[in-house]
Design goal:
The chain is an alpha/beta fold. The chain contains 16 helices and 17 strands. 39% of the residues lie in helices and 23% in strands. Helix 3 crosses helix 16 and helix 12 packs across helix 13. Bound molecules: zinc ion. Zinc ion binds next to loops.
Length: 438
């Protein structure tokens, strides 16, 4: 007998052949998917479980994978507006320095990760100052997290030096590497804030422990100009020169690239995270998604933090990714909804080195899945579920979220903790957050 049966579901598997099972049933046992069948078949009739959940005809699909976030920055949402990245970061860092402690980072991480989870993201890759607090928040909410030690050469939060960051990156691995819900990484901020030598040290820590290496790259033209002035190179050539590209590297943004840089990313099998809302709102530009896709780069999707894009909505990010690629290239088939849905699911799993366990609904994979309401006016009639998910559905349609078979969002409510209590604590903190920039 299985633990859970999800019945009466329109199953969008996100597997390699984009399979859809109409009127399907999925079984889960010990946190893994054990069966996917069409209702009425003898295999489906033989399934039984301790708990039966009716999907009421709604879409059952894998949880989304948000590949770039700074969850705790939700504390500062709306505080710094209408500035380009470089000036904007200067203001953000003043506010972060005044407010962030491990305790406030936990509060902000809960806010940001709860928004992710309620929106249907079951795994988030997060870069932040106190990654142990990010992990604690993710575990309290019952979701999966990829994070780890940050590196930053300028005076950072908590007065930490490069030596401290090295210790913390190694220590993070020791503490969390055996935890199934944590995918450890090393996350230096960027090549304009971390020297080549320190980036290389961060990469060697990542390589030594088999961790991911994640950094911001080629986000703005100003960043390209800065790296050119300092190192007489473009950002991606600079990363390539220092052996920082590769299958375990995850680069956030990649908005400003030339053809050679795209081919370096493709040859090295480097993973890219597109963050369209953040890039639009900061006036950074529009990533050359079609060219990167044609070069067969593994493209994934992220929201960035809530201070740049102002929400952590992967549905908006999917819609923008697809719409912008079509609009900018003036080609209605520049990118398909199927390709974009895969970017938000299985491609993210691939970038995390977890395509065997995450990113699609397939037997043997972790039972990380969501239910999306299609019994509403904007979903009827529904001829093409995948197009609907990318262009018609939104985060308010996500009703239920399961991670490793655990029901962590029930009917749009977080199950694991008292979110109202966290909201109240953040309300108390709000005046000092506002005052930090006055
Ligand atoms: Zn970022």
């Amino acid at each position: 007998m299985d633990d859970i049966l999800i019945k009466d579901a329109l199953i969008v598997t996100c597997d390699g052949s984009h399979s859809i099972i109409e009127n399907g049933v999925m079984a889960v046992s010990q946190g893994k998917i054990t069966a996917l069948e069409q209702t009425g078949t003898s295999a489906a009739e033989n399934l039984s479980a301790k708990k039966i959940v009716s999907a009421n005809g709604n879409i059952l699909m894998p949880g989304l994978i948000n590949m770039h976030c700074h969850a705790a920055d939700s504390l500062f949402r709306g505080l710094v507006e209408n500035l380009p990245l470089e000036e904007w970061l200067g203001r953000v860092w003043i506010a972060e320095k005044a407010i962030l402690t491990p305790e406030t980072t936990y509060l902000g991480s809960i806010l940001g990760l709860a928004e992710n989870l309620l929106s249907g993201s079951t795994t988030v890759m997060d870069m932040f100052w106190y990654p142990d607090q990010t992990v604690k928040a993710a575990k309290d909410l019952g979701m999966r997290i990829s994070t780890g030690g940050i590196f930053f050469d300028l005076p950072g939060i908590g007065g930490r030096s490069h030596k401290d960051f090295i210790f913390e990156a190694n220590n993070f691995y020791q503490k969390h590497s055996s935890d199934d819900s944590v995918i450890p990484a090393v996350l230096p901020h960027g090549s304009y804030t971390v020297s080549p030598q320190n980036l290389s040290e961060a990469k060697s820590i990542a390589d030594r422990h088999g961790m991911l290496f994640c950094t911001h790259a080629a986000e703005t033209q100003a960043e390209q100009n800065d790296i050119k002035a300092r190192y007489d190179n473009s950002v991606i050539r600079h990363l390539d020169k220092h052996k920082l590209l590769g299958e375990t590297s995850v680069l956030a943004h990649c908005v400003h690239l030339d053809e050679k840089e795209i081919s370096l990313l493709a040859q090295s099998k480097t993973n890219i995270v597109l963050n369209p809302m953040s890039n639009l709102k900061l006036g950074s530009g529009i990533a050359p998604v079609k060219a990167m896709h044609r070069a067969e780069i593994n493209l994934t999707i992220g929201t960035d933090g809530a201070i740049s894009g102002n929400d952590l909505d992967m549905w908006l990010a999917m819609r923008l990714t697809c719409g912008l690629a079509k609009g900018v290239n003036m080609e209605a088939d520049a990118l398909t909804a199927e390709q974009v849905l895969h970017m938000a699911t299985i491609n993210g799993a691939k970038a995390l080195g977890k395509s065997n366990t995450l990113g699609s609904l397939e037997i043997g994979k972790n039972a990380d899945f969501i239910l999306v309401d299609i019994n509403n006016s904007h979903s009827i009639p529904l001829f093409d579920p995948i197009t609907h998910l990318v262009f018609g559905a939104g985060r308010s349609d996500v009703t239920d979220v399961f991670v490793s078979g655990k029901h962590v969002v029930k009917n749009k409510k977080i199950s694991g903790l008292d979110i109202e209590k966290i909201h109240e604590e953040v309300r108390q903190l709000a005046p000092s957050i506002k005052a930090s920039l006055e």
